[in-house]
Amino acid sequence: MTLTLALPTGRIFEETSALLQSRGVSLPPSVRAGRRLRIEAHPFTLVLAKDRDVPTYVEHGVADAGIVGVDVLSESRPDVFEPLDLGIGACRMVLARPASRPAGFFRDLSVVRVATKYPAVTTRFFHGRGIPVEVIPLAGSVELAPVLGLADCIVDLVQTGGTLAANGLEIDEVLFESTARLIVNRACFRLKTEALRGLVRRLEGDRAS
Question: Do residue 111 and residue 149 come from a single domain?
Answer without folding.
Answer: yes
